[in-house]
């Protein structure tokens, strides 16, 4: 799935719940344990003056990472 989040959001913890430290979490919402096995940033948006958000740059997947 895809998530659009604010900068500084801990995505892996958002999914797993980080032993109850992050709530709500995906695991909590679906009622079973969940872990992030792969994380790809597909784009970054940045606020600009007089605009809600502006598209900055797409991320190029590094399949060797």
Structure in a nutshell:
With 65 residues, the protein is α+β, with helices and mostly antiparallel strands. It has two helices and two strands. It starts with 10 loop residues before the first helix and ends in a 7-residue tail after the last strand.
Secondary structure layout plus pairing:
Layout: H1 11-16, H2 26-30, E1 43-46, E2 54-58
Antiparallel strand pairs: 1-2
Structural category? alpha+beta
Q: Within the largest sheet, what's the order of strands?
A: 1-2
Percent helix among the residues? Answer: 10-25%
- Elements, N to C (H/E): HHEE
- Overall mean pLDDT: 83
Descriptive notes:
The chain is of the alpha+beta class and 65 residues long. It has one domain. 17% of the residues lie in helices and 14% in strands. Strands 1-2 form a two-stranded antiparallel sheet. A hairpin with a 7-residue loop joins strand 1 and strand 2. It is flat, with a radius of gyration of 14 Å. The two termini are 20 Å apart.
List keywords for this structure.
65 residues, alpha+beta, two-stranded antiparallel sheet, 2 helices, flat
């Amino acid at each position: 799935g895809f998530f659009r989040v604010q900068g500084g959001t801990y995505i892996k913890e958002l999914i797993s719940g980080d032993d109850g430290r992050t709530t709500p979490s995906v695991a909590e919402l679906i009622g079973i344990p969940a872990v992030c096995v792969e994380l790809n940033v597909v784009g970054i948006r940045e606020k600009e003056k007089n605009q809600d958000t502006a598209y900055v740059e797409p991320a190029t997947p590094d399949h060797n990472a």
